[in-house]
Amino acid sequence: MSDLELTPEEQALLERLQTVKDRVEYILKNYPNARNSDFYLTILYIRHFIPELAKYISYIPYDVIKKHEGLFESIRRTRQRIQEEGRYLPTDREVLKRRRRLEEAMKRVVHKL
User: Fold this and answer.
1) Range 17-51 burial, b when 16+ CB lie within 10 A, else e
2) Is residue 27 part of a domain?
3) Among 52, 60, 67, which Cα is nearest to 6's?
4) The domain containing residue 39 runs over which residues?
5) How far is Cα 62 from Cα 66, in angstroms, rounded to an integer?
6) What's phi and psi for 93, nearest 5 deg?
7) 24: number of CA atoms within 13 Å, CB side?
8) Domain for residue 63, yes or no?
9) Disulfide check for 6: which of 10, 12, 22, 34 has CB 3.0–4.6 Å away?
10) What would you measure as the largest C-alpha separation in the chain, in angstroms?
């Protein structure tokens, strides 16, 4: 079996749970610690439902993830602040366009509040 081949149980799970909502609910039901950490939830989602990425993620115990769970949001927010200053902008034009559209929409919404 190659790294991307699924066991029959894994294949059945993928076929049964088609939407992101179904998959997230499955994880939240079966892995209570995922209810406390979006990062852990994301790792479990990848491990269960994205085989091509899962092969790169070894098992990480929840206790280890819990120690670092805020780090990923801090990294995202820091990247966002740096790029809002106009530094180190995305190299992909589509990503840049999408982020600028979201930023403008947010300004319009906040302005109306």
Assistant:
1) beeeeebbebbeeeeeebeebebbbebbbebbbeb
2) yes
3) 52
4) 8-112
5) 6
6) -60, -35
7) 9
8) yes
9) 10
10) 57
Tokens 């029959």 label which residue? Answer: 8
d(CA 61, CA 70): 16
Residue 14 lies in a domain: yes
Measure the CA–CA gap between 49 and 21, rounded to whole angstroms: 12
67, with CB counted inside 10 A (0-12, 13-18, 19+), is exposed
Q: For 73-87, write each residue's pLDDT tens digit.
A: 887 888 888 888 988
How many structural domains are present in the chain? 1
Q: How far is CA 107 from CA 79, 102, 110, in A?
A: 19, 9, 5
Q: Would 2 be classed as within a structural domain? A: no
Confidence of residue 6 (pLDDT cuts 50, 70, 90): low
